[in-house]
Amino acid sequence: MIISKEEQERIVDKLNDEKASFRFLQTKKKDLDTLLYSLEIEEVNTKEARSFLQVIAEETLKNLEFHLSTLPTSALFAIDPSSPKQIAEITTKRNQVECCFYFDEEGNLDKPIDSAGGGLLGIAGFGNRIMMWSLNPNSPVLTLDEPFKDLSSDKHKNASELLQKLTKEIGLQIIMVSHQEEIHAQADKIFKVTKKGKESIVTVV
Prior knowledge:
By secondary structure, the chain is α+β, with helices and mostly antiparallel strands. It contains four helices and seven strands, in the order αβββαβαβαββ. 53% of the residues lie in helices and 21% in strands.
């Protein structure tokens, strides 16, 4: 079979085009292999980073859980040594952090709202306020509105002593509204507010 010179040139040109395409595909494959390798490394790093962050998050939540339990329990015991412990239970559901509080009395967990009288809920609430302040103590002042209004009268003296101890030992200034004289009896200053018609009259006691 005799091939003309023109046909030979056409075949050579096509061969050269195929070679050029092959070299282009080789280069493209090399680039894609490099990209794939980078993505695999990035995926490994991402998984490692995610695992590391998960560990840090879990440790942080455990520390926070301890913090959320300890201070309110200290407040409960300071006012009433027979009080149950407050337990904070932190869980993560669907990437959302949830915190539930319980009273732990000899292993029996009850929700604070279901606690039997005596002002336990108010004491725990006060302890929680102190705990929240301690997490970000950028202000030395804490305002409270009748935190012990349901506290039984036999525990008023202990509550007053706890308030005084907090102000002296951690330098926290507490501004509190209260109708219970024994609780605020040891305050540095007492302002009495009385109503006269539509006016409120403030006097220093």
